[in-house]
Design a protein that fits this description.
Number of helices: 4
CATH topology: Aminopeptidase
Shape: globular
Mean pLDDT: 91
Low-confidence stretches: none
Order of helices and strands: EHHEEEHEH
Number of domains: 1
Radius of gyration: 16 Å
CATH class: Alpha Beta
Number of strands: 5
Strand order of the largest sheet: 1-2-3-4-5
Helix content: 25-40%
CATH superfamily: Gcn5-related N-acetyltransferase (GNAT)
Oligomer: single chain
Structural class: alpha+beta
Length: about 150
């Protein structure tokens, strides 16, 4: 499978926007799509946010995005989202995206990349392990509605 990875642009960011809007399990309007696309394009111009899209035969099939965040006065690079189209999971696309992000971060001079996932997301855990991420923190969540 010939996977190419490139930085998101005005066209490929539409794949990311579509995925994000579908995560709410609802239909969305053209206006919602345009507004979120503008937001993502503005983020791409900040110099603190990057998004890379994996393609097969010029068709987007997955993406990874990450940004610089500050914690206790230090800047860290955090993976925001890693997504691969459902029918193509398990074919190395997520691993390729993460490896690309790692190379990019090294070129930018970062020493670490942070990522988190849900405890039951086996696929993400597998990608993180393959790309040599190590567990560093445990996050506890308290549901306040119960």
């Amino acid at each position: 499978m010939d996977i190419s990875i490139r930085q998101a642009d005005e066209i490929t960011i539409e794949f990311v926007v579509d995925y994000c809007l579908r995560c709410d399990f609802k239909n969305y309007s053209k206006n919602e799509f345009r507004q979120l696309k503008k937001k993502y394009l503005r983020r791409l111009d900040t110099g603190t946010y990057w998004c890379f899209v994996a393609q097969i035969k010029a068709r987007p099939v997955g993406y990874v995005d990450f940004e610089i965040t500050s914690e206790y006065g230090n800047s860290h690079l955090w993976v925001c989202e890693l997504y691969v189209h459902e029918v193509l999971r398990g074919k190395g696309i997520g691993t390729a995206l993460m490896n690309y992000a790692i190379k990019f971060a090294r070129k930018k001079g970062f020493k670490e990349i942070f990522a988190c996932t849900e405890n039951d997301n086996i696929a993400s855990k597998r990608v993180f392990k393959k790309t040599k991420y190590i567990p560093a923190r445990i996050v506890y969540v308290r549901n306040l509605l119960k």
